[in-house]
Design a protein that fits this description.
This protein is an alpha+beta fold. Helix content is about 30%, strand content about 20%. A 4-stranded antiparallel β-sheet has the order 1-2-4-3.
Length: about 110
């Protein structure tokens, strides 16, 4: 399991507060990915391109995970649309807008 603590120091407190709020609302959150190196990113991208992954992955060098400003989660119950709406209301980018509902990152939301 990945740790939010590996995120950029400015990002960590916001991510932690978001996950804590979800858990307080009764959602079990498992952080599945945070910072990824180029080798891991290359493998994820290759799996996506080959159709072995249902989640998109950026090519190496183009992922916000490499910058420490993105995290992926598993939510139970799977309330991704609701969590994504909250994340976007904070002004950030939710991957559900581009077919990656498990992805949350700190880029400004398009149109913000």
């Amino acid at each position: 399991m990945a740790s939010l603590r590996s995120l950029h120091p400015r990002v960590y407190p916001l991510a932690r507060a978001f996950v804590d709020a979800l858990e307080h609302a009764g959602v079990h959150v498992t952080v599945t990915s945070t910072v990824r190196g180029p080798d891991v990113q290359a493998e994820l991208y290759a799996n996506f391109v080959a159709g072995r992954s249902k989640f998109p992955a950026a090519p190496p060098g183009r992922s916000t995970h490499a910058l420490g400003i993105a995290f992926d989660v598993h939510l139970d119950p799977p309330v991704y649309d609701q969590a994504g709406a909250v994340w976007e209301s904070l002004g950030f980018t939710w991957g559900g807008r581009f077919g990656d509902p498990i992805h949350f990152d700190f880029r400004p939301r398009a149109g913000s």
